[in-house]
């Protein structure tokens, strides 16, 4: 069976209106200017001034000037200096920014595709076309499909639901196979036969974990902002101590057993793939663990896989892949590139 792996980065979601991480920060600052919690913004501003000798807006200009400075390094600085308050504030800032810019639940039970919005903005539905024109075609050709996503948003699974593929994909997280999670959305994993494995390496805005018992819950329609007022579904717990199951964008990422499982499955998928499609993911140094594991898997792939790269800087991505894998173009049967996600999904 032909094995096809998609690696999905921020470049794919951007086509449908989700901000990149740098845009998250920029938009977040504007939102926090109008926020009702000025103390938190003050702590964030104070920390950036101490570390970078700049105010919060000078830091944004500095960050635009030097791409090596990112939110990961801000978090890392907070950790290294034991600035626990600052670290907490920055993490809150990041996740609150995500909520205000991209995490509003989509109308997944609507039959009208024009009702899909992100943060009040109607999306252009390229994620829908990706499933319609690419994934459905893969399934018709009897391909085994793996989607590895580095994004928090729910665009891809929403598109799967709209294309009547709820029963054809799985997050591959054992706790999501429990009756309460599987019936949370009618059809999810019902009769799942392994057609589309959807691995979200940094978590998802519809995943929650109980801080007391560790129970993991899956929601389709709940907004991220409502997590902290929810109760654990575990019968012996029922406490209101839920947190988002997300990995913060720090350099030293905390991978628990769930994410280690996903990382192992992603690595084996890339090692066995006949075709690898990279969409808007640049193998950033900040994702050091994932980057090295992905590189090792591609290096150890003996199938001479086809490689497709979708990015506005395809040459840079290809050079990065060659560098971190120690391989050249001879390692791949064929290499194809597209400058943007929109062109790729429209291609027949």
SSE diagram, text form:
Layout: E1 3-8, H1 10-14, H2 21-33, H3 38-52, H4 56-65, H5 71-80, H6 84-101, E2 117-118, E3 121-122, H7 126-140, E4 144-149, H8 155-162, E5 169-170, H9 179-182, E6 196-200, E7 203-210, E8 216-218, E9 242-246, H10 257-272, E10 275-279, H11 288-299, E11 306-310, H12 314-325, E12 334-338, H13 341-346
Parallel strand pairs: 1-4, 1-10, 4-6, 5-6, 10-11, 11-12
Antiparallel strand pairs: 2-3, 7-8, 7-9
Helix pairs in contact: 2-6, 3-6, 5-6, 7-8, 10-11
Please count the beta strands (DSSP E, at least 2 residues each): 12
**What is the CATH C level class of the largest domain, in words?**
Alpha Beta
Residue-averaged pLDDT: 79
CATH architecture of the largest domain: 3-Layer(aba) Sandwich
The biggest sheet, with number of strands, parallel, antiparallel or mixed sense and barrel status, is: 7 strands, parallel
Structural class: alpha/beta
**Which H/E pattern describes the elements?**
EHHHHHHEEHEHEHEEEEHEHEHEH
CATH superfamily of the largest domain: TPP-binding domain
Global shape: globular
| Radius of gyration using CA atoms only | 20 Å
Question: If you had to describe this structure to a student in words, what would you say it looks like?
Answer:
The structure is a single chain. The chain folds into two domains: 1-16 and 112-348, TPP-binding domain (Rossmann fold), CATH 3.40.50.1220; 21-101, no CATH class. It has a seven-stranded parallel β-sheet, with helices on both faces. The protein has helices at 10-14, 21-33, 38-52, 56-65, 71-80, 84-101, 126-140, 155-162, 179-182, 257-272, 288-299, 314-325, 341-346, and strands at residues 3-8, 117-118, 121-122, 144-149, 169-170, 196-200, 203-210, 216-218, 242-246, 275-279, 306-310, 334-338. The chain has 348 residues and is α/β, with parallel strands linked by helices. The radius of gyration is 20 Å and the shape is globular.
